[in-house]
Automatic annotation (TrEMBL):
Protein name stated in the entry: Histidinol-phosphate aminotransferase
Organism: Chitinilyticum piscinae
Residue span, Aminotransferase class I/classII large domain: 25-348
Sequence similarity: Belongs to the class-II pyridoxal-phosphate-dependent aminotransferase family. Histidinol-phosphate aminotransferase subfamily.
Gene behind the chain: hisC
Record pathway: Amino-acid biosynthesis; L-histidine biosynthesis; L-histidine from 5-phospho-alpha-D-ribose 1-diphosphate: step 7/9
Cofactor(s) the protein needs: pyridoxal 5'-phosphate
PROSITE patterns for this protein: AA_TRANSFER_CLASS_2 (PS00599)
Amino acid sequence: MSQFWSKIVHTLTPYVPGEQPKLTNLIKLNTNENPYGPSPKALAAMQAQIADTLKLYPDAASTPLLQTIAQHYGVPVDHVFVGNGSDEVLALLFPALLKHDAPLLFPDITYSFYPVYCGLYEINYQTVPLNARFEIDVADYDRPCGGIIFPNPNAPTGVGLPLATIEEFLKRHADCVVVVDEAYIDFGGETAVSLVAQYPNLLVVQTLSKSRSLAGLRVGLAIGQPHLIEALVRVKDSFNSYPLDRVAQAGAVAAFEDVAYFDDTRSKVIATREWFTAELAQLGFETLPSQANFVFTRHPQHAAAELATALRERSIIVRHFKRPERIAQFLRITIGTPEECAALVTALKEIL
Ligand code: PMP
């Protein structure tokens, strides 16, 4: 008997998530969470669900949430899909939209889940190197492909693409799906949702984990034309899973409705990022221009791994990727509160 399960164990390389240590006395700046917490209105909406209705099954189609998202972005309801975190949306869209004979393309330095899904679904892929400035260059993607996926802004670099470049991707690759993973878009990027009406090959993916500070709730979404959304729904229904539980649906609706809190907290993160980047420059760090809630930075004289260890000894956790080699000299640092970032600057002054 062929041991197919053995092949699974030996060939699949699982995603390695950032560390989630106990929070006591730690400044945790390693997994791009939002330091401000969810909207108080979202918390109240979730508490009301817990108090009153958990004995009932949730709305299987998440209809009120789809309507809220559609209204928020000015798209028809049949253009919206929701899932348990954008990771689930990605897990469904890889088999639904990206499996072709030609390879899927994505940057060589990007969200490390993409090759994991390709392994899982046996999707042929090619990575495309970022250019010398660590940017995604549309000209480098001029080759036959079965789909394209990249984050905008990219992770872990934080470097964003203008809308005109996204449109260039859509025009040059009209025959395949282009997925723009906008996990960090609200911290300074320009969303591609406005292009969805014109481009049937565009799927935009977003999450409530970052700019709406609901990483623990697991809510993600996709916006695209109905033929793409229908394919996602078909794959999801094949797993017989409810998209979202009652608490998640209620919290997500209220989080979208609380625009004032969203604007206030994301502006604070952006302001702290600008201050923090200037402080890092004073210390001799070179930081890539970030449109995200994190910065990607290196010091010409100090090894990133050693800096990460020294920070950890001072109870501050940042992310260091050993591979690919081109980024092994960088640290990825999440933007926390001004106090957390100031503590990090103080620690770096001690270390350097
Ligand atoms: N896309 C990118 C680029 C990310 O960095 C992340 C967060 N790790 C995700 C998607 C997934 O986020 P979530 O599942 O919390 O929505």
